[in-house]
Amino acid sequence: MPNYYDLSAESSVCDSEDDAFSNESDDDGTASAEGLASDHRCILHVDVDCFYCQCEVQDRQIPKDKPFAIGQKHIIVTSNYAARAMGVKKLQSRTAAYEACPQLLIIEGSDLERYRIHARKIYQVFRAACKRVHPEIAVRRGSMDEMMADLSVAISIDGDDRVDYSNDNVYIYGANGRESIALTEDQTGVCSKIVQEFQVRSLGPSEWSCSERLQRASHIALQIRREILQSTGFTTTMGVSVNPLLAKIASGLKKPATVNVLFPWRSQSLLASMPLRMIPGVGRTTVKALQHCLEKNAVSSQPNFWTCQDLLSVPKQDIVSCLEQVPLFKHSCEVQADIILQKCIGVDHSQIQDDEGGAPKALSVENSFRRGTLVRKDVLCAELEELYRRLSRLLHERREWSHSSRLAYPTTIKLTLRTVDEKLASKKRRPFVTRSKQSSFDGLAFMQLRDSAQQVAFLKRAALPLLHAFELKSDVIDITRASIATTGFQDLSARPKDSPTYFTQPCQSNMSTFIEQTEHGKSRSPRDALNGASTKMSIHEQASMFHNNKIDPSILSQLPPDVISELRQVKPKKRQRIDDYFKRL
DNA sequence: TGGGGTCCT
DNA sequence: AGGACCC
Q1: What is the structure's pLDDT at A461?
Q2: CATH 3.40.50.2000 for the A7-49+115-276 domain, yes or no
Q3: Contact, A147 vs A584, CB < 8 A?
Q4: pTM of the full predicted structure?
């Protein structure tokens, strides 16, 4: 049973800007409201409504109104709206789900292949639709059921298209009038409901133009949504706002099959009352670390219902010291604190990087086992056989994403095992240790194999040495998860568009000519310099290496002056922020 | 709690 | 190689 809280009781805390944002640590003194007003982007976030369920409705003609769920192992991972209405939850045990809904139909969903195929189609339709609106719109795939686009380039300054929302499911948050907003349940099971009567007031000039732009963006969103529905049969929910954070939050405000426009001036009160955990990028570990300082400062909410508002009322130094306890944030806790605080007031400067087609950067297959059921090595080897088969299929499937399919092969393979650590068994609820081993992988040779038995054998020859490297001599290995991953796809190592031309046209490049020469002479190639191997590097490998700034300084100094200066002109990639989650999309 | 993914250190 | 985060 969900916990509800009502923000109307607390709405007064949102009204006083001084009080609410006294904590704002903005470096250049920009006020929070300024931060919001200065973001002139129009970002679109798309969520496919209960994606797996829609797949099953299409693939197996399941009646939509019959409650059903998707099961994996002993849990259900998602369910349709009819089942949710009966109290079926995400990541619930099958037993609990049946208790909530005895007539529930559970469909086995451990094999993701059909879902991946639907997802690819949806993304490709979405991408094409965006590019047709304007070729320079940056488009990015998030997960199988999430996508984002930066529509800013398509919104003209003085455009005058009248927007007609008749019959369309469009919700505008921050416009005058009455609103009823239900936030969807988050991963912790916290469910919040916000009912708020919004004050009627008129918009200032800058708000007015923002409002115009976002409404035009929502008009584009509607067209794209219709296109997705017509071409794929899937319904989607969209969020439109001024940055990726707010666009994503917007798409969660009302589901399914809607377009949600969130004006930035409305986002502050919305976020203030939202549980901290619902902020994208603020996960379990972070909230746990922050709990100390929230308690210490005795903020208003009940424990476990910390809101953004609560965090904003904590002195920043306290937040920083809390974050020091997260190992990953150890050396960047000040930056992390700023990033989280910014998010709490709806500010997010992250950019949407176009993914140039969306081909996955890593492919992995995994299988999990109940504790104590996989304790012998030979059984593990047998289980790995199935993973080889699945990985083989995945690798061939991925060629459908690639714009250059002969480069659609990986160069690295990794075996990961999760075991039970007896030392942790008494202390933690999930006393697991995850370890991995990786090596290079001749994906090109693999992809050229025609026979599936040979493909499996090839993967096995690559994976068994990794298994051996674990040195599992003890008989008490208690494996709870095994996975095999491939990465380093060659069709992704190609340079961004603004790179020097010789990266895109290797044959005519100064660089490749130079490397040819040094290789024929006594000088060594970069690859040789880096790891002492004598294998010749392909031009794509070279491009990848230089692009990643991994070139050995001694090699760099040997390059011709014009090449060096051109390399220097390539701007070093701005360091990505840890919670810059939309770059991951 | 599953079967995937992304990015950062 | 490992960890935090996402769906």
Answers
A1: 98
A2: no
A3: no
A4: 0.78
